[in-house]
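From the shared-data thread, chain only:
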Amino acid sequence: MEKNVALIGCGRIAGHHCKSIAAIDGIRVAAVCDLELSKASIYSREFDVPAFNNYHEMFKKVPDIDIAAIITPSGMHYEHATDVIQRYKKHVIIEKPTFMRLNQVAKAYEIAKTANKRIFPVFQNRYNKAVVRLRRAFDNGELGEVRLVSVRLRWCRPERYYNLAPWRGTFSHDGGALTNQTIHHIDLLRHLGGEVEKVNATMRTLGARIEVEDSVVATAIYKSGALGTIEATTAARPDDFEASISFVCAKGLAQIGGIAVNELQVFTPEPTACQINSEDFSRIKNHGAVYGFGHTGMYQDIVADLNGEIGFPLDRKDCIKTLGLLHAFYRSDETNSWVNVDDQMESSRLGTENGEISNLYRTPEPK
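Structure, as tokens:
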């Protein structure tokens, strides 16, 4: 039976979700919703589905929705997702960084378990051909043990980007370069390199008048003994330049680069693998180059999961470990010291409450 998806939030990435859903069988866009009806109407016309500015009204008028994609400001993910699960008994897809606080992960998954519903976190870069090939190389021993890992993200987010909405550039609802733009690379540090033991990070705000960091330099020590470095900034000018991760290993070297880890640039065990495991994201319209094609694979896995064919590859444990690593970097900057990742302690800044901003994105239930 075809699964019906409703989008809650129709910002920059919403159209990418719609196109990804339309590209596969077994799932369809059934409704779109945004507090600004004009934004939802764009996708309503393109995909011939009803548009709403209140998700409570949407669920009442379109009761056969199976899944809600939560694409609202990051700081609203927990509130929106848990409300949809509890009140309307829907599965939820949650855009990065899933939740802002560690304790929200455990609470949300418990709520979903009680309601017998599924949570599907979005880490679409895991589906990139280059990432899949490199994961296979680590699994089968082609590269040997990891020795050095390096992440480098050099993107451009000028002040006008942060001025697009009140939630942008805030610790409560957005997070900075590490949380918003580099979260997928933080996930790949684990997904490809293994678990990290401790980190040390220094954060600065250098290119825009915002409260969050736009530049980070950090060091990571893996449980395996490998070393990692992270250089991430949205203060590059005048455009996005690269987003890469490289591995120096006992049997060779591998590097994934491009605009969004979409190009296998170096793979010494099999150099000819580079071309066939690289993808061109530049032809994707409407900011799609930074999103890639991974959402399509993600939706295929969601359909397979709900049909009982295979389990979704990202579970609660995976989600909390990536978010825990993210918080460790912030805690290191806050304490000016090394931080043990397994402590699973939360940042004093990231995801802190801001009721004034939250009220701008809350959806009142119609009387």
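Residues 316-335 form the longest helix (20 residues).
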